[in-house]
Amino acid sequence: MSAPQESPLGGRAEFRATVAAYDRWARAYPPVSHNPLMRAEAALMRHFLPSVRGRRVLDLACGSGRYASWLSQEGPAHVTSLDSSAVMLNQIAAGARILADMMSLPLAASCMDLVICGLAVGHAPDLDRWHREIARVLAPGGDLLYSDFHPDAARIGLKRTFEDENGRTTVVPHRVHAAQAHKRSLAAAGFKIETLAEARLGIELCEEFPGSDLLYRRWRGLPLVLVVRARK
After folding, report:
1. From residue 222, how far is each of 40, 118, 152 by CA, in Å?
2. What is the DSSP pairing of strand 138-149 with strand 192-200?
3. Residue 82: alpha-carbon gap to chain centroid
4. 134 with 144: CB under 8 angstroms?
5. 3-class DSSP state for residue 30?
6. Handedness of CA 131, 3, 163, 64 (dihedral sign)
7. Residue numbers of the domain that contains 149
8. Is 76 a domain residue?
9. Is 219 a member of any domain?
10. b/e for 8-38, b at 16 or more Cβ within 10 A?
11. Which candidate, 52, 14, 35, 230, places its Cα nearest to that of 143?
């Protein structure tokens, strides 16, 4: 694995803070969807997943490999996992691993057939550049499937946080991208949108957990996750 290049658009402080947060989180971050929101997001991503068989797949901002593990079981030509946290990448046993910033992909043009990215685009400081980089590495006719925390969730004050193995809560830097911004940026990068879907409280996200009854009654229908499927 080569060292990641710091994103000049994100600023060194934000980039380093994000990587440091995920390095700390990695020790308590299993390679599975480990909370109700992630499980609802994963169900939508699986539902809209294009064909994987025989294709070259990039798991972008892969974290501990929760997607890479099941993508590798779908018959791909190969799966490449890319992340800026070496501690996260160390949890991935199969396939190629690349330590890099997702804003500057160290990959050849048209080298992938499918790019999948789960809940990481909020770390992109420039949505247009992020989409252009993905479009560059995707072959013609290639597919992009990704998820983002919904801007409506940020509107009511929800933040991206985690609790590490010592019980310490950390707020991870996260940028809010409006749904319209996704649409405009995808079109500018040459993508055709095929799906825009949401995971809504009390509907797609309806798993029971402590306090869920009150949450679902108060915010029923509020979208927490946006899922996008597009084709180059």
Report:
1. 13, 20, 7
2. unpaired
3. 11
4. yes
5. coil
6. positive
7. 12-231
8. yes
9. yes
10. eebeeebbebbbebbebbbeebebebeebbb
11. 230
Provide CB contacts within 8 A for 93, sequence distance 6+.
none
Please compute, for residue 43, the number of CA atoms within 13 A of its CA located in the half-sphere on the CB side: 16
Give residue for tokens 């989409």: 131
What length does the chain have? 232
Residue 201: which CATH number?
3.40.50.150
Would you write out the chain's pLDDT as a tens digit for each of its 232 residues?
434 444 434 456 777 877 877 778 777 777 777 788 889 999 999 999 999 999 999 999 998 888 998 899 999 999 999 999 998 898 888 789 999 999 999 999 999 999 999 999 999 999 999 999 999 999 999 999 999 999 998 888 777 777 766 777 777 778 899 999 999 999 999 999 999 999 999 999 999 989 889 989 999 999 999 999 999 9
How many domains does the structure of the chain reveal?
1
Give CA–CA dist 131/121, Å, rounded. Answer: 10
Confirm if 36 and 209 have CB atoms less than 8 A apart.
yes
Tell me, yes or no, whether 6 lies in a domain.
no
Structure tokens at 167: 């019980």
What is the enclosing helix (H) or strand (E) of 142? strand 138-149
The whole-model pTM stands at 0.90
Judge whether 159 lies within some domain. Answer: yes
For the CA atoms of 88, 94, 95, 97, the dihedral, rounded to the nearest 10 degrees, stands at 20
